[in-house]
Amino acid sequence: MTSCFSKIHLAFGPKHTLANLSSSVLPPFFLKMARSALDEMSDSGAFLRTASTFRNFISRDPNSQYPAESGRYHLYMSYACPWASRCLVYLKIKGLEKAISFTSVKPIWERTKDSDEHTGWVFPLSETEEPGAEPDPLNGAKSIREIYELASTNYTGKYTVPVLWDKKLKTIVNNESSEIIRMFNTEFNDIAENAALDLYPSHMQTQIDETNEWIYSDINNGVYKCGFARKQGPYEEAAKLLYEALDKCERILGKQRYICGNTLSEADIRLFVSLIRFDEVYTVHFKCNKKLLREYPNLFNYTKDIYQIPGVSSTVNMEHIKRHYYGSHPSINPFGIIPIGSNINFSSPHDRDRFY
Ligand SMILES: N[C@@H](CCC(=O)N[C@@H](CS)C(=O)NCC(=O)O)C(=O)O
């Protein structure tokens, strides 16, 4: 566990310390840690995501603290969540289903304790209560919050998914999806059914890292900055950057099949999880309505292309996605009405094989 101080350190990167953070930069969670994404707000009304806390690594080295053993780890996730979904995509396309088990929570946040007002991810009480979701098979927990409390008695951050759980040491290994996908990509190759697939090959790493940076900031997190902004200025700034980034993707994808060239890479999976949610959710719920995904020919066909990679469509549960966003943020959608949507068929033909 990191201390409260080191969490602030992590959130702002290594350059910043308490001493050089001015009070106008210090977010409210310095005084009271954010308990949900809806609390992560700067004084200017902009959404400010806090860093994940559990940052251990599974290793292919059998002598490491967390060796890559089959059957040892469990992914707690939500089909609704883009960050958790990217981990599930990796689990499926790397052929790790037999090695790493997973459970999805229910899509709509509920009260996690009678004694306070926190709402968050909960498990169904039975196998049949919620299609796609299952009761916690390992710890019998009622909520993801309980999983964090089992791993640490003094945890004060958000109770986010994904959570990579170690069944042997009964603790959380890691709750940061960008790191979990890297572990899934390389560390389980002795047991992965699709070990040859490398989505972060050394010759592409610089390009993938650079691409991830603007896609994360302007698209993956950019849609949240639009949706959770509490003032017009930060919303407009985020929306401008979002659409500049989408236009850039559209241009790139007019010249090549994938975002970093003609080979599928990590950057594609990271982009995909946001695109697949775009028209059904972000356009309405997060006010990203300058243009729809389906108005971008290259991006739209590209989304279908990734969706049709064997294993990927099974990670997309649009029911969970829609019910989560429209049903879990009452300050944005007080009546929980789910817009009817366009019900896009991502299995329909696409034109991306023109690049081969
Ligand atoms: N940095 C984390 C972010 C995960 C995250 O924000 N998950 C959201 C769901 S989409 C969550 O669990 N939020 C719970 C909350 O805000 O209380 C990662 O990428 O793994």
From TrEMBL:
PROSITE patterns: GST_CTER (PS50405). The record marks 282, 325 as: Lowers pKa of active site Cys. InterPro entries: Glutathione-S-Trfase_C-like, Glutathione-S-Trfase_C_sf, Glutathione_S-Trfase, Glutathione_S-Trfase_N, GST_Omega-like_C, GST_Omega/GSH, Thioredoxin-like_sf. GO terms for cellular component: cytoplasm. The active site is at residues 81, 224. It holds the Pfam family GST_N_2. Glutathione binds at residues 121, 158-161, 176-177. Residues 201-325 form the GST C-terminal domain. GO terms for molecular function: glutathione transferase activity. SUPFAM superfamilies: GST C-terminal domain-like, Thioredoxin-like. This is GST C-terminal domain-containing protein. It comes from Manihot esculenta (Cassava).
